[in-house]
Amino acid sequence: MNDVKAAATSPRTGRRTIRKRGKQIKQLPWGQPVNPHKRLELLSADAIEAIHMNSLRILEEIGVAFHLPAAVDLFAEVGAVIGDDGINVRFGRDIVEQALSTVARASRLTPRNAGHAVDIDTEKLAFATVLGPPNCHDIERGRRPGTIADFADFVRLGQFFNIIHMIAGSPVEPMDVPVEIRHLVSTKVMLELSDKVPYVFCHSPQRIHDVLDMIAISRGIERDDLIESPSTYAIINTNSPLQYDAPMAAGLIELARYNQTPLITPFSLAGATMPVSLAGAVSLSNAEMLAGLVLTQLANPGAPVVTGAKTLNVDMKTGAPAFGSAEANQSLQIGAQLARRYGLPYRASNFTSSNAVDAQAAYESQAQLWAGVLAGANVIMHAAGWLEGGLCSSFDKFILDVEILQMMASYLQPVEVSDETLAFDEVVSVGRGGHYFGTDHTIASFESAFYLPLISNTKNYGQWAEEGSLDATQRAHALCRRALDEYQKPALEPDRQEALDAFVARRTEEGGAPIDW
Amino acid sequence: MNDVKAAATSPRTGRRTIRKRGKQIKQLPWGQPVNPHKRLELLSADAIEAIHMNSLRILEEIGVAFHLPAAVDLFAEVGAVIGDDGINVRFGRDIVEQALSTVARASRLTPRNAGHAVDIDTEKLAFATVLGPPNCHDIERGRRPGTIADFADFVRLGQFFNIIHMIAGSPVEPMDVPVEIRHLVSTKVMLELSDKVPYVFCHSPQRIHDVLDMIAISRGIERDDLIESPSTYAIINTNSPLQYDAPMAAGLIELARYNQTPLITPFSLAGATMPVSLAGAVSLSNAEMLAGLVLTQLANPGAPVVTGAKTLNVDMKTGAPAFGSAEANQSLQIGAQLARRYGLPYRASNFTSSNAVDAQAAYESQAQLWAGVLAGANVIMHAAGWLEGGLCSSFDKFILDVEILQMMASYLQPVEVSDETLAFDEVVSVGRGGHYFGTDHTIASFESAFYLPLISNTKNYGQWAEEGSLDATQRAHALCRRALDEYQKPALEPDRQEALDAFVARRTEEGGAPIDW
């Protein structure tokens, strides 16, 4: 593992020696934004109920296949109708209602630094890094397959920026690490370089147990202690239409048993894996989500669930998912209403289809963020660094995204209206045609009155051109390097570090986990 | 004038002969989006009332200066207290309430093509081109002072794209036209190249009368006929704090007398021309707006008003206005609530401070658009083409903005929830693990199901790289040229054309209008 860390840090160490140390980056303090506003309602309550009822009908009359006998058995125990194929389960609304009566609607995820605990509920927001792309990119080094060194740098960025609350699994896939031990190596790096909420991939029960063991070690507790004090979360996808594959079904069961938080978010494509109409697509996606939610409650009543049943559309020109489309924004908000119907926290994403860190990437991400937050999203996955519809993690976009996340957090700050802020006396004293640059009120508020941008620029054209005409992406790239320079590794107690080293060494010696399950 | 037109069109004509004619650009049909959603409320009703009451107190106890005797006289007639300086007017809430009881809250602006009439009210949206920058830019020709040829090309773009409802004054200032006749020359080009709602600058009564005469000629009517059938609109600014200069005061009076629509939108800077606190700044800005609104009703009870009392903040690092800040989005939404308090339509803007058509330009514009529309904005000024905090009009950004405007219009389309769109039978027939690519439902909806992007790209990285790795701005630039190629000049009746030519010739011979008033 020392080699891995050395590879990850040495290019940056090299840069550090030749670069001047500038001013420290000023950023927002740690904290979860709270959405104080009434949630936007895209559809009427009646329309939401019609979508919900259609979901129930799908579960009752068509059913969902679980490619895992243990899951099917759980459904059979409560009287679900099992198909002749042995995998299809059909069940009535009573079973859904029962599950909705026990599901936990809030959870606190505590990482090894309790000061970085994150509340997952229907009021607060939590932003997670990008998850899963096999490639990464920055404008200096170009596009390339992800390595554990890149993985480590993304974890460092997630740790460095306070607006990032959770590290998401592989912010880039470390393609240079064998699959059998990838979860061990990458989780070790994640836990060493960050003390924020870590992620667990649901590839198989053994992998989940390994990661839970490692998280427990990082906290100085046992795996079973995580049931009382959860630490982690995972995305659960469906194999649409109407299927859960074995890893996902097992993931739901294991997460529920250990009381960790699944984000049940079918990846749904209107006109491909789902009906072309948004209402139909969201309703089918919601049915799939409900089936997964029921499974968690069958495995462990009272386990938490976050939903994200929405849908993207297929770009009718390319056949590819349109990650930042107008329809994606609509379905995102319909999904949020369904989540509210169930009282569940809601997951959204900072998606874009763009292949470059350009205006498209920015307008798609920004629209997704606004649409999601205003409709009531609570967990924003891929909040920083997502590009190319998920096939590439971008260092430069990570910074741009941090900027728009910080701006969103600032926008959500309540505006105080009081005699002091209305400042009548000041208006009297400045009078007509004067200015407010030097008033006591302005001077007292100078530092804190407004959000201080990371890279947004208000310089006039002449100044900006003199300084090299750097566009936002170039400025983001420079800031990314500064952030990696300023990053400080959070201390890990030596006994825990030793235990972690020993665990990974032992499990690696045992061959890690088999590739296919 | 023929020279002017030739200069405007010849570069494009030249290109046309050497460029292959591609497919026609597919765009949304003409129509004003309607916002079907409940408006976002940033502040409580009590807080809005406190801001309103503070505005009334400012008008009562401090007053507003009008640097125009005719305006002061109108206030004196209704019992306002005139200051010793002869320009400050103070008045009670009774006068404000009286004005709010007569002001028109809706207006239909009819241009020479009645099919392009625009409703200004509290439900619909209208998007206007950028207005006023002295420079323009595209990635091919670079940054340069605006000319009448550039002006003409922006008017063509505004005419070409259906999502643009109104042409705004000078989408770029034609710096090559002498100021005395600039309003004549530019209005002539605007009326010849576009049959959409035109704009009138409020530089002086004579200029306003000239432009109203020309608009009337283009419609085959008389200037006084515009009172019954309004055609145009103008931005009214204040000289903050608490002053209206003579052109703006005269503009309010003339617009009111002719029943045209002023957008009374003080350009307010928290920490500079206004208190540093948003509540204080918006309240002061609102007081200025109310003073202007009162003047319109004194000049002509029942005249229409659109408000846009909001505030930007000063970037505390550069001292420049932060056009796309988090605080700008907050104050935009507070202003919208005040507009709703008065039942008035609300103006927002598609602002950015960025100097390049980059990610910053896109995320700032997109946030302004979402914040404005969701809070209830009705008229979006500078909706396409604004850059550099208003010092530059960008051809390339015009296209990017058209894309985000079309996406917003698509997002605002109601989502139908019905048995047909829920598509239960289709879900049954596709079943588990199938796909929806070839279903009747998908095939029938293929063309119309989803918004078809102008430049947003969902191609995978390989395809995109093969096609030249063009970023969104480069693709926008190419589309801009195609749009200028496809643009068709709307026919103008020969007698009206002759009358317009004659009017401009006569007024030019008379020397146009004096520079200073």
What does it look like?
2 copies of one chain form a homodimer. In chain A, the strands form 6 sheets. A 4-stranded mixed beta sheet of chain A has the order 2-3-1-10. The first copy, chain A, is of the alpha/beta class and 517 residues long. The first copy, chain A, contains 19 helices and 19 strands. The first copy, chain A, has helices at residues 2-18, 45-62, 69-77, 93-102, 148-160, 179-193, 205-219, 225-228, 246-257, 278-299, 326-342, 359-375, 395-411, 419-422, 424-430, 440-445, 461-466, 472-486, 494-509, and strands spanning 64-66, 81-82, 88-90, 107-109, 118-120, 126-129, 135-138, 142-145, 233-236, 243-244, 261-264, 269-270, 306-307, 312-314, 321-322, 347-349, 379-384, 386-387, 392-394. Helices cover 46% and strands 11% of the residues of chain A. Residues 1-20 of chain A have low confidence and may be disordered. In chain A, strand 4 and strand 5 (118-120) form a beta hairpin.
Summarize the structure.
The structure is a homodimer of 517-residue chains. The first copy, chain A, is an alpha/beta fold and 517 residues long. Chain A has helices at residues 2-18, 45-62, 69-77, 93-102, 148-160, 179-193, 205-219, 225-228, 246-257, 278-299, 326-342, 359-375, 395-411, 419-422, 424-430, 440-445, 461-466, 472-486, 494-509; strands spanning 64-66, 81-82, 88-90, 107-109, 118-120, 126-129, 135-138, 142-145, 233-236, 243-244, 261-264, 269-270, 306-307, 312-314, 321-322, 347-349, 379-384, 386-387, 392-394.
